[in-house]
Amino acid sequence: MKKFVIVSDIHGNLKDKTACNAAIAFTKKFRPEIRIIAGDLWDFSAIRTGASEDERAVSMQDDFEAGKDFANDFFGRTSENVLMLGNHDIRAYDLRDSRDAVKGDLGERMVADIKALAAKHKAKLIDYDARDGVYQLGELNVVHGFHSGMSACAAHARVYGNVVFGHIHSIESFQTPGIKQKEARSIGCLCDLNPSYVNRKTGKLRWSHGWAYGWLHEDGTYAIFQTRGVNGKFYAPTNIAEY
Amino acid sequence: MNPWAEMDRIIKRIPEPTGFGWFTKSELMSHYKMSDGAATRTIRKMLNDKLLDEWSGTLSVGKFGKKWKLKSENKGK
User: What's the pTM value of the predicted model, to 2 decimals?
Assistant: First the structure.
């Protein structure tokens, strides 16, 4: 039996320090053999296509360093580490295709830095790709997330079966009806719940801080639990008993 | 080279100045019928003599570039 922790959506310089510190403290105490960052470790809003003046004002260096600091604290020396890319992280990769040669070169160097961070922790680097961007944890699939909106969990369950994902920043679940039920869970985020770019979007009112953790059995079955932040406090039982 | 700091420099948010007196090297070459090398040397000398204000960043055409303005143009403004 192996213990695992899955966190998602740190968003670099937009990370919520209280939520991140709680997730790190929990992980250090829980000592999981498998540690997964399920995407959007960085925000990279400054290089978003069509970024506004305000978005370009965000320092890429601060963004990268903030995400890197989290990964350095989260990953263990002997654990199986997984770094998944999300739709925000992938902006650095997309920069390589820029028609501006200077930006293209910088994109290459940024990707090299991301790969170096993964290599430092012997972390498996998973692409943000609907087919290849899946990490299998026994019978549980982990993806960053590809659907959004009210039916995001249902859409992920239809495509990926038993799946955990981040992306939508909320804590939700959906079970498909059937003889063999499939469940999709979105596990919340560790970033600012009120970034300025969603000031007038009601969707942010569903966002929550949280992470998932559990036990993976040798036969591929698993037990998974959700931690949710309430007023900056996180409670997570760390013992399991079989009945 | 740190690509993150370099990108910050390139997409620095100080918008391209378009007011009176600001010029690019191309405009200097065109106005005084100078070669590229002559314009480069002229600008470098004026910068060394602290006669120019310099702006660098992303030009409105989307490319990284520089613009200069005579310091004397700033007087009284």
Answer: 0.81
Q: Find the DSSP H helices in chain A.
A: 17-30, 53-56, 60-74, 90-94, 101-120, 152-160
Total domains present in chain A: 1
Could you tell me the CATH number of the domain that includes residue A207? Answer: 3.60.21.10
Q: Using CB atoms, which residue from A61, A63, A103 is nearest to B2?
A: A61
- Total CB pairs under 8 A between chain A and B: 44
What is the sign, positive or negative, of the torsion defined by CA atoms of B14, B16, B22, B25? positive
Q: How far is B12 from chain A (nearest CA, A)?
A: 7
Q: Is A54 a domain residue?
A: yes
Over chain A (243 residues), the average pLDDT of each successive run of 10 is: 97 96 97 98 90 78 96 97 98 92 93 98 98 97 96 96 97 94 96 86 93 96 96 89 82
Angle at A13 between CA A25 and CA A190, to 5 degrees: 40
Provide the shortest C-alpha distance from residue A108 to chain B (in Å). Answer: 9
CATH number at residue B66: 1.10.10.10
Per the structure, the complete domain to which residue B45 belongs is given by 3-74
ipTM: 0.86
Distance from CA of A64 to the nearest CA of B (A): 7
* Strand A222-230 versus strand A171-175 pairing type: unpaired
Q: Domain containing A198: what range?
A: 2-234
Identify the DSSP state of A195.
Answer: -
Whether B13 sits inside 8 A of A53 (CB atoms) is: yes
| Nearest to B12, CA basis, from B72, B52, B64 | B64
What distance lies between CA A96 and its chain's CA centroid? 23
